[in-house]
Design goal:
- The protein is of the alpha+beta class.
- It has one domain.
- The chain has four helices and nine strands; from the N terminus they run ααββββββββααβ.
- A six-stranded antiparallel beta sheet has the order 5-4-1-7-8-9.
- A hairpin with a 2-residue loop joins β2 and β3.
Length: about 270
Amino acid sequence: MINRSNYQIGATLITVLILLVIITIIGLYAIRHSIFNLKIATNAQVQTLLMQTSDVALDHLEKNFNANELENLAGTPVGQVLLDGNQGKELQLCFKPTEVDGSAVKNNLFFNLSDFRIIERKAKNSTEASLIAESGNINAFCDPISMFSISRKAIVTQVAVVSPDDPAIEVNRFEYTNKGSDPKDSTNTNTKRVRATVTSFAPAMTSASIADINLCLKNRLMDDSLLKNRENTALGQVKIETLHECLNKLGVPLNTQVSEYIVRLNESKSNI
């Protein structure tokens, strides 16, 4: 004889187990969806912070030039790249208002003449930068462990400044004409272009090793618009790999901004 009571208890147990499985699946989906949304929000916040930090570095570059152009233009990154022989070469510096030195934290000037490097590519068939500085200190690049661009000690920012050797694009016909001068005057050569590239990144938000990040900082140029840094098959020249591209390969969250300026040297009384 079939025990109807035991049969009903067994059916109820199976139903409860099925409901538990369904609830568990729904719960796991909700958790994963929440984590995914949190990651999106976090990534958006990080990108906003990186972009703002790059903007701050560009602002400091402009303020540094404006404060020193009349008396000490050669003591600025812009003045350095405008020196004879430096056109088409890249000046790099670390924007590090906050630097950790042991247990102490020190505040740094935006730029000093003992803490920058002017470099070129290693060779036309190499994607890397030269290991010898044309000027300055070859090791004047950011240390992702101790040099930070914000007080949170989370963002690192490297800056490159060049006097471009590539032709200007979409520039007004008289953009490079000095004020009060005759556009037909062939001696009107005191107006220069300067381009700044700023890369900010968050080393703590990646699984990449500090050693690999350091290799990118040490061995990469940042401006691939210079003629000598572009691909030119006729010359057997390959395109360089930029710092942005190198860090991006490692999966490092980053932001790069480029800004171009026009410098009218005859409006400055300094002699570079």
